[in-house]
Specification:
mainly alpha; 71 residues
Length: 71
C-alpha cells in the first residue's frame, strides 16, 4: 500500500478525481455532491492524503503490520 500511495502524486490524484463515479459506487464518505458549505469535496479528502501516505510510509519503515477492513 505504501508503494502504491507513493507512486501517485497529489496532482495526479486530482486529475483522476471523478465525483460522479464515486457517487455511483456509493464510496464513503458520501460527500461527492458539492454543497454551498463545501463546494469542492476533493479538497476535503486531499487534506488527508499526505497524512495517509506518511502513515503507511512509517508502517513500512518500521516493518509494522496494518489491518484493513473492507466491506
Amino acid at each position: 500500500i505504501s508503494d502504491a500511495l507513493e507512486a501517485v502524486s497529489t496532482d495526479e490524484l486530482r486529475t483522476r478525481y471523478d465525483a460522479d463515479a464515486l457517487r455511483a459506487a456509493d464510496i464513503y464518505p458520501s460527500i461527492w455532491v458539492p454543497v454551498a458549505k463545501d463546494p469542492e469535496p476533493l479538497d476535503y479528502v486531499m487534506e488527508y492524503f499526505d497524512t495517509l501516505r506518511a502513515g503507511f510510509r512509517t508502517l513500512k519503515k518500521e516493518n509494522w503490520g496494518c489491518f484493513i477492513l473492507l466491506g
